[in-house]
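Thread: sanity check for a docking pose with S-adenosylmethionine

Original post by kr_44:
Hi all, I'm comparing my docking run against an independent structure prediction. Below are the sequence and the ligand SMILES. Could someone generate the full complex and paste the structure tokens? I mainly care about where the ligand ends up relative to the chain.
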Amino acid sequence: MSPGTSVPFDRAAEVYDQTRRLTAEASAATTQLLRTELEPRQPCLEIGVGTGLIGLPLHRAGIRLIGVDLSAPMLAKLVEKAGGRPPFPLIIGDATRLPFADDVFGGALARHVLHLIPAWQGALRELIRVVRPDGVLLINIGFSAGPWQEIGDHLDALIGETARRVGLDVNRGAELDEAMAVFGARARELPTVWQESELTMEQYFGEVEADVFSWTWNVPPDLLTDAVAETKAWAAERFGDVDRVLEPRFASVWRAYDLP
Ligand SMILES: C[S@@+](CC[C@H](N)C(=O)[O-])C[C@H]1O[C@@H](n2cnc3c(N)ncnc32)[C@H](O)[C@@H]1O
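Reply from moderator J.T.:
Ran it for you. Here is the predicted complex with S-adenosylmethionine included:
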């Protein structure tokens, strides 16, 4: 895959929901949060809808949704979860070239997608084009800060250039705010959704080594194995027993952008 290409999730479709772990409570809180924003602004678009972790509950909560994703296997998983039929229109497509006319949606959402798209500013331009003036874009890019971030940084330092980081840096909400401000969009941070977690370091390292996360998909297996072993030893010294839950909860933050 060339450096200018987005990262589709074909290979993750079967394990995505189990390894991304959205608890029922966090899912319900997220649906409630997004529904409040989207209900008055329908129909809505989700780019990178994936297996429908966010889109399916929103649809069940009455939001009229259209989903776009590059990955047919991820969309197939969504359809399977919905009982075998597409619960709402699903399109295999690229967020940087949306197959819609201008101003056809009232709102749009993107969760954990912009970090996979090298031309993420192009995806923003497309979202702004297809969402009406006075509409809203809801974007969740952040992952965890704190100890998990430290562990990620340690791994990154060891696997270096081979780590596949192609799009918006997930820890740079400010960069997203700046890019949106160019379009005249005003940022609001929505109330944080907290999610309980039982993830241990041991489990996490196992998943990293099993190539569950997209940023390892270019890393040579031997390099990854060595980096995990070294980081595990470092983490045991820094944080203690690798079999304990590292953080009992983590934050999920959505940003809302009101379009002019
Ligand atoms: C990490 S998953 C997130 C799925 C879903 N939004 C969620 O929160 O569970 C990212 C999804 O974005 C899709 N994707 C990556 N680049 C894309 C692009 N340029 N256009 C549309 N979808 C894209 C991937 O195929 C994958 O299904």
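The mean pLDDT is 91. Hope that helps with the comparison, let us know if your pose agrees.
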